[in-house]
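From the shared-data thread, chain only:
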Amino acid sequence: IKVTIDEYLEIPDDGNKYDMIGGVLHLSPSGFFEHGEREIAIGTIFKTFFKNNKIKGKIATEVDIFLPDGGDVLRPDLSVILEDNYPIIKRHIHGAPDLVCEILSESTEKRDLGEKADRYLTNGIKEYWIINPKNLTIQVWKNRECKRWEKSDGNLLESEIIPGFRVDSTEVFE
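Structure, as tokens:
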């Protein structure tokens, strides 16, 4: 369905998750239980690290991002905004979060790794964390000048933008 941003904002909360890419509304059904578990796990890891290391950062799940170029509205599973970037936080997020995380599912994997990844890249999101429950893997994609992603995976993953932040993938899949 083709929609404008104003029409997007008028969609009632129906329990579904939507992305608007190129003016086209994409429906993502509510996640399964495992999806929610992974979302809480990674969010808790970020939150605990911030608290223990006195890092000022905010974490939100499934909040609309109005991308800086004005073209699309995306709703990642998790958004991380560091203190210097707090001005983008309004009722929704108006600008590029520092980091976004998507938990792949059969219904969203192609879009998460394709169109959404491209939009995150060109709009300056610094890191894109991808959790794949099917393969029990995590990838970290680091933005290189809004032109390409530098991808890494493994059991221990590190952030470039959050000093000292590391995730052991087994913590997310316990």
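The two ends are 39 Å apart (CA to CA).
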